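*** Residues and shapes ***
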Amino acid sequence: MSITVGAYEAKARFSELLRGVRAGKRYTITNRGAAVAELVPSEDTERQSVAEAIEGMKAFMLKNPVRNVDIKALIDEGRE
C-alpha cells in the first residue's frame, strides 16, 4: 500500500521520505491531486519472497471476493 504525499510536502520532507523508503514504505507523489510519481525501494533491495506474495494475494482475495463476473465475456471483450 502506498502513502500519498503532495509534491510540496515531498520536497520539504524528502530526506524523511527516503528513510521511509529504506524501511520498505512506498509513496505516491501527487501534483494538484493527480498522481505523478512513485517513490519506491530500488530494485536491488531485498524483495518479498514469492511465497509471501502468493499468501498476500490469497488474503486479499478472501477479503475481496469477485462475484457475478463473466470471465469469458471479459476475455471476449478483450480484457485478458
Observations:
- Strands lie at 2-6, 26-31, 34-39.
- The radius of gyration is 18 Å.
- Helices lie at 7-12, 14-22, 50-63, 71-77.
